[in-house]
Amino acid sequence: MSVLTPLAELVSTVQFLHQKGWAPATSSNYSVRHPLDPNQYWISMSGIDKAQFGLQHLMLIDATGRAIAPADAWPSAETLLHTMLYRLYPDVHCVLHTHTIFNSVLSYEHQYDRRLRLPKFELLKGIPGVGTHEAEIYIPVFANSQDIAQLADKVEVVLKQGTEAPALLLAGHGLYSWGASVAEAKRVIETLEFLFESMYRLKAYMPPE
Ligand SMILES: [Zn+2]
Alpha-carbon distance 167 to 176, whole Å? Predict the structure, then answer.
């Protein structure tokens, strides 16, 4: 595998996510671990319209989130969540983040529950390690914050206690998901966005109690 393979995979995934409408208004950010140096990552630059996203919008950073190349570029404002996830999970090679109406509404509604239970739908099996739709899967929900360093510390404490899915929600903000490869992280994002939309529509369909 070429050093550039994960970068090309990431760019086509970003374009896919944008086409789905999951990265509006320059929001969302994405990264991959360097295949030859586990303490370096390529991450999307800040403020890029994802409709135009290409290789030139990825930059190399170190494990503290500092720019390596281009040295004068600005990484995503949420870089420290990515670096925390790579530090916590040595086998993770890709982190994806989406801003969607369904993940924003559900995480906002369940922020005081601090977790969201997924419906027992067949697509649960899109989550690594889940072999049946009968599984009880919860996604942790965190209060949104503009202090990303502090937020990353809080998230790390919770994730260290274990999770059922490689994902977390920020209330009224969006979804983070990660995987051993770009393809795996993408599969988790698609799975969860399908389940979030299903939950939302199921509730809209049910008559009020
Ligand atoms: Zn965000």
Answer: 5
Distance, CA of 136 to CA of 164 (rounded, Å): 8
pLDDT tens digits, 186-205: 999 999 999 999 999 988 77
Query: Could you please report the per-residue DSSP string of 158-200?
Result: HHTT--SSSEEEETTTEEEEEESSHHHHHHHHHHHHHHHHHHH
* pLDDT tens profile 158-187: 999 999 999 999 999 999 999 999 999 999
9 with 186: CB under 8 angstroms? no
CA angle at 124 for the pair 34 and 88, rounded to the nearest 5°: 30
- Residue 97 alpha carbon to ligand 1 centre in Å: 7
Residue 42 pairs in a beta bridge with 32, 60
Cα separation, 111 vs 126, in Å, equals: 24
CA 51 / ligand 1 centre spacing (Å): 17
Ligand 1 centroid – CA 131 distance (Å): 30
Cα–ligand 1 centroid distance for 197 (angstroms) = 19
